[in-house]
Amino acid sequence: MQDVTKTLTTRASRRGVLKGSAALGLGTLAASSLGSRFAAAQDEPGSLEVFSWWTSPGEAPALQALFDAYLAKYPGTEIINAAVAGGAGVNAVAVLQTRLQGNQPPDSWQTHVGHELVDQYVVPGYCEPITDIYESEKWADVIPAGLVEQATWESNQYSIPVGVHRGNGFWFNKQVMKDNGIEVGDTMTVDEFFAAADILQKAGIPALALATKDTFAAAQTFENTLLGAVGPDTYRALFKGEAPWDSPEVRAAAETYAKMLDYVNPDHSALTWDGATALIIEGKAGFNSMGDWAYGEFVSKNAVDNVGWVSHPGTNGSFVLVVDSFTLPKGAPNAENAKRWLRVVGSKEAQEAFNPLKGSIPPRTDVNREIFSPYHQWSMDSFAKDALVPSCAHSQASSPAFKQAFYDASLAFVTDKDVDTYIAMLSDAQAMDAETTS
Ligand code: GAL
Predict the structure, then answer these.
(1) Bigger pLDDT: 98 vs 43
(2) Which one of 143, 167, 230, 390 is most buried, counting C-beta atoms within 10 A?
(3) Closest protein CA for atom 1 of ligand 1
């Protein structure tokens, strides 16, 4: 595991490092001419290791925008990009866990607020509180209370949100729809999807682009389908363990999902999530159910003009929250730089640079809305008025153990489409979760 991190660890922004070395040289000279070696040591930009899973063509430039915002303030810092590939952190989370257990934390890591932050990192003692930074930066004045709350454990804040993704996007290629005489309105029902899917199938086009090489995509497509079938209240209750999985409405959701799976691309097990996004860009599939990091892919490939979106069928009026944030580790090797990093990540400038590229909307509400794309503005409106529900596929809604069971059951279902087994696996996972947390 450690070797994987090492291989993938790259030095960010050579330009920044070089520019920085020059700046460091000047700084050192100036300091010694003042005869103060101590001052020079304090100015030392040093290094900053940032751990994430942002390696896709859309994610990497957005991460670089954060690095650039940091380097603009603290030139000369050697930024070590310790990203580990794999959508939703399917590989990164395990690598990070090994490092944390071995007492080798990076200076900051990416995590989702909610259960992932709290269960996986705060409660086991891997994070320092950053409540003082929240206070000095006055973040609570500009970040909605609901988001701050999800970064909070026992009255302290432990991470700073950088982007709010909407998980229930349903993306399509406008030309493909036009060529096949399919009109997509502002919303889509499940029946409308199946009507479009039949047309596409007759034209030899898979109606649903799926990528199951990253294990999260099957779980995410199901959680979106589930939300459409049961609505936001029952959806929340299910993941909180307050509603049963073996109910007729969950069963109906699984049946709908099974039917949707009849329309997927045959090579789904060979594709990572951005591969499915590419099928939409290239006009080789109808729709892709994916969080709006997909929009980041469209941006990076200059494809936004030919891509349309609606909410995943039946989920209009709901916003599936996938909130990215950064932490302050206990024992961060460069703790001062780690704190600087968090202040940058939480700043208006950095959030305005990062989110247009990433597809997410800024957690800060004082950003300039005009610099954002029509998609972003649509998502901002949805965030303001729709029912906000957490994503299980992205670790916010449930314990890590339940999430893993949700992944395993959903992946098995893509192959066997066995509704009884699916429901039984989810019910068992819920029962085990109740036992562990009671
Ligand atoms: C999510 C994460 C997003 C995006 C996506 C695909 O879990 O919140 O920022 O990276 O995975 O990797």
Answers:
(1) 98
(2) 167
(3) 88
